[in-house]
Amino acid sequence: MNMRKSWSRSVFAVTGIAALLAGAAGCGNGSSEGTQASEGLPETITIMSIKEMTGPVSFAGENSTKGIDLAVEQINEQGFLGDTKLEVELKDASDSTQEAASLATQAVSDSTYSAILGPGLSSQASAISPIAEKGQIPVVYYQAGSDGVLVGDYTYRVTAPAHSYYHIIGDYLAEKKVETAAVLYTSGNPTLTELGENAVPGVIEDNGVEIKRSDTVANDTQDFTAVTSEIVKADPDAVFLLLLGPQNPRAVSQLKQKGYDGEIIGMSTMGAGNLETAGEDAAGVVWPSNFSARSEVPSTQEFVKAYQEKYGEMPNNYAAEGYDAVWLLARGIKEANSADRTAIQEGIAKVAAEGFDGAQGPLTFEGNDVRVEGVLASWDGSEEVVITLGES
Fold first, then answer.
1. Which domains does the chain have, with CATH numbers?
2. Alpha carbon of 304 to those of 17, 72, 270, 307, 369: distances in Å?
């Protein structure tokens, strides 16, 4: 396989098994290349992947890219698209909205690209989507959970919004006899703000739990001493932490240092190994998640096995989402039997209407937005586990 990794802020390419598949504009027949082919598949179909490979959320971009690489490798080795090879060209937008929009504009204007794999930052996705819709190029996002991302037929998302499965925490609250709660969320992130202000309080109150206080922190907050002191004084039965990944271990540890011994409940940002630095302090923390490598769902375990064989490590939710995004695109391309952008969009729509089994388990779609069953994950002090009510 020809593999090349291309960075938008660099002028070099890297070859190797761990690199993302990228490539030159492949031609299916002498006169048609990339998205210009309207009937039948060309020799190569090229996708632009706009990811956050540097900056504060690079951990998400790096892990989703691993899932993307694995999916592309499988698709090509299995001959899923016949003799056609799928190539993914990686572009680093870091955390820049302007850079992400510029790259999307480049993808629209360059007929080499048949589709885009979008970033996880909602701010970037919201800037890309109008460009993609106007230019009629399909985009599949991971994460990017805020409103304004899915704006038309050409925009899809393979990360279920947390509010669509967060309700599974309800039985846990009942089992633990939680009557009062506090909420702490990162206000500089649109997705976390929506969860902290509306979705999670709604779930809490629907389960008869009183919210004693609600606090916010900034995106760059690392010292939670003051706010955790106030939370501990309120003495809630449970604390809900809706924070950026790297903030979670510090917030958990500082709650424990203040003497808090109640329930700590989070969200999927607690996964991906983010609680490792908290160690035993985080033992017993739970969170609803769209994915866990410990799930016994067959399609999840198939993905986990393949991922471990390739990387020698357990996958996290970002890797699973990147993997599912590529397979959604590949299925859409196969359905279309064309590299034409509109044909691919129509193919994706057909696939979404039927759903499929992916790394995250059975995937269904509500419009262009994925839905999953969700799992209740927990940190046992050294690793992530899946818990079953009655055994937690």
1. 5-160+297-371 (3.40.50.2300), 164-289 (3.40.50.2300)
2. 18, 16, 19, 5, 23
